[in-house]
Design a protein that fits this description.
TIM Barrel; two-stranded antiparallel sheet; disordered N terminus; 13 helices
């Protein structure tokens, strides 16, 4: 058993109440059981009640989704959520936990609680039509997806990393290739366009050897955005803080494309981004809570795995996400807010705090 303070006990995370949404939607949390998935074969585990986060999130997120505001995680296959979001007994074979069964079917239970998820997996592949069909069959029609567009389209130069093999460090010939986007991704997603809430173009941090500055980047981006096929909503996420300039925001606004407000290691905070004049560039809000500012991805993985609980509360990011909720509620804008485990250690716990 672990004892922990509920979000309401965090004095550094003030409760803010908006005129359009000020009724408390849940109860304070104080304790839950944390389990080792390899020991989910006991009678106790078979009958153990789930942690209160599940019921609280289900109610709160359903209320927000009814107003067009969708919150969810970045992916869903986390064994650390067993007993919190996932029912252990649903993933047992012959009385023992089955990792294979869990990874193949846990999306169905995820969708019982969360109205949306960001499919980060799409960044690394162009899934087949069969893959998409199987994926969408597991969730109701009301469920909404965010997908990262494959890196073949958003990476100008392949990173110097072992997984890229011989192409590491080489220019990417399909950078901002509209034909590849249309034929490789959009065609396969066309039957599911209603459930696809947003497609995110994530542009990683780029050196001045790639783009001398925001002007050069925006020139390429503007041409690309002007050719985007209709039928989907798109958003742009950048990792260069110096690109947060009027020229960038004006480009997005001209195409009604939202800037993705992101919490990331080398970006200004979400509140700082929101305070920039003109940073709301569209009739839709999109945000991703990914990492504490200054913390590398690898450090977050080592610190937080297997993501069973919030370990490093981040009041600044929580408040930024809450302010985006306020903007969406006041202005009546649809919104997609995705929270990663590597932000605080457990994204369900973070979402409980943000929506309190």
């Amino acid at each position: 058993m672990e004892q922990w303070s509920g979000p309401g006990d965090d004095q550094s995370h003030p409760v803010r109440c908006h005129r359009s949404w000020c009724r408390p939607l849940g109860l304070p949390l104080h304790a839950r059981l944390v389990k080792d998935p390899s020991r989910l074969d006991t009678l106790f585990d078979l009958h153990e009640p789930l942690a209160p986060e599940r019921a609280i999130l289900k109610e709160r997120l359903r209320t927000l989704a009814a107003r067009g505001i969708y919150m969810g995680g970045s992916s869903w296959k986390y064994e650390g959520w067993l007993g919190q979001i996932y029912t252990p007994s649903r993933y047992q074979t012959r009385g023992r936990f089955s990792k294979k069964l869990f990874e193949e079917t846990c999306l169905q239970e995820y969708a019982e609680v969360f109205p949306a998820v960001c499919g980060d997996f799409a960044f690394y592949q162009f899934p087949t039509e069969a893959f998409w069909a199987k994926l969408f069959r597991q969730v109701p029609d009301t469920f909404r997806w965010g997908f990262k567009v494959p890196e073949q389209i958003t990476v100008p130069t392949w990173p110097v990393h072992p997984r890229y093999g011989a192409i590491a460090g080489q220019p990417n010939p399909t950078f901002l290739d509209i034909g590849l986007l249309a034929n490789g991704l959009l065609r396969a997603l066309a039957p599911y366009h209603r459930q696809t809430g947003v497609l995110i173009f994530e542009f990683g941090a780029m050196s001045r050897r790639t783009f001398a500055g925001v002007t050069d980047f925006v020139a390429k981006l503007d041409d690309f955005l002007s050719e985007l096929p209709a039928g989907f909503r798109y958003a742009v996420e950048i990792r260069n803080a110096d690109f947060l300039a009027p020229r960038y925001f004006d480009c997005l606004r001209a195409h009604n494309i939202p800037h993705v407000f992101n919490a990331w290691t080398r970006m200004p905070g979400i509140q700082e981004q929101l305070a920039i004049p003109g940073s709301v560039t569209s009739d839709m809000i999109v945000a991703r809570g990914l990492l504490r500012e200054g913390r590398p991805y690898e450090d977050a993985v080592k610190m937080f795995s297997p993501y069973t609980k919030v370990q490093d509360p981040n009041p600044t990011v929580r408040l930024g996400l809450r302010e985006l909720l306020d903007v969406a509620l006041v202005d009546g804008l649809p919104a997609f807010l995705f929270v990663n485990n590597r932000l605080e250690g457990n994204s369900p716990g973070t979402m409980v705090a943000v929506t309190e």
